[in-house]
Write a structure and sequence with these properties.
Length: 306
């Protein structure tokens, strides 16, 4: 066999790479999570939807270094006569549709947006309150899953997530009691829960969405506003940890990722595994057993479900 790595050294008794230490101390402990990462976001934030692929990979590969805290920021309480977002030319619901479509086309995270003309979202507060109630009654992971499902329904599948019946259905699909949770979110006690997040967002100095703030044990940190490449977030983490190099976890297998996420768009798989769009079909066929998934298409983009 010509593989030099397989040569066995009679003196050291080692088969493998030459120069390997005979005895050495190895630290198998995961690094202490000394960094707090706050993600100031909103259920109807299109740029937050656009960074989902990058944020997922960042959490999967570097989440062992930080505690992750989504914070609801309150993007839209209600429509009124004045400008809502004059910088983007948004004065009324119909103005949102072309802006969302542009974000979707640029990011390749599908956004239909036509409901903002036909049946517009009136407020982002109802889904934000549902998020907070699930977080309070269950856990952060289920609340975050709700946020993901709500965004899928809004952006890709054009459902109005300010409609309580739509919210009930989304929560039911999580295996929870949608009617009870949405009812609790709409009670007077629901808004104070949300106000806590608004206060936290203000204290962090977040004024736009998405904003990611990383804070270390010395209460120093970095603030990143808007969407950025994957490496930008890794560099920010290095900065707050004051480390030259970090040890990423390996990317999860596609089968385990799809099992956990339930639905993945092509762009999300491309980002996670460093693939080109043209490589997706061959990669999925190689990684997933036949009959274990469905491939569908929406707005010119492929997506995969269990």
């Amino acid at each position: 066999m010509s593989n030099n790595n397989m040569i066995c050294d009679l003196e050291t008794g080692v088969c493998g790479v030459s120069g390997e230490e005979e005895m050495g101390l190895i630290d198998f402990n995961q690094p202490k999570k000394s960094i707090e990462v706050y993600y100031v976001t909103d259920p109807i934030c299109s740029h937050c939807w656009a960074i989902e692929p990058i944020l997922r990979r960042f959490k999967e590969q570097y989440g062992h270094y930080f505690n992750f805290h989504p914070v609801m920021g309150g993007l839209l309480e209600k429509w009124h006569d004045g400008p809502i977002d004059p910088a983007n030319g948004i004065y009324k619901p119909a103005d949102v549709a072309p802006h969302w479509r542009e974000v979707g086309e640029h990011s390749r995270m599908p956004i239909d947006g036509s409901l903002m003309i036909d049946n517009p979202v009136q407020s982002s507060f109802p889904p934000s309150r549902v998020y907070k109630v699930i977080q309070k009654n269950y856990n952060d992971a289920l609340a975050y899953e709700f946020l993901r499902r709500a965004r899928e329904e809004l952006f890709a599948f054009n459902q109005n997530i300010s409609d309580l019946s739509v919210l009930i259905e989304i929560v039911n699909k999580l295996g929870l009691d949608g009617e009870a949770i949405v009812s609790e979110a709409e009670q007077p006690a629901g808004q104070p829960l949300l106000n806590e997040d608004f206060a936290l967002a203000r204290s962090l100095g977040a004024r736009g969405f998405p904003t990611i703030i990383m804070i270390n044990e010395d209460n120093k940190g970095v603030k990143m506003v808007g969407g950025h490449p994957f490496e930008y977030y890794v560099d920010g983490l290095k900065q707050v940890l004051n480390k030259e190099e970090l040890q990423p976890n390996p990317q999860p297998s596609l089968s385990s990722l799809l099992e956990k996420e339930k639905l993945l768009f092509s762009k999300e798989i491309e980002v996670m595994y460093n693939l080109e769009k043209t490589e997706i079909n061959a990669f999925v066929e190689k990684e997933l057993p036949p009959g274990s998934y469905q491939k569908k298409e929406i707005l010119g983009e492929s997506y995969f479900t269990k």
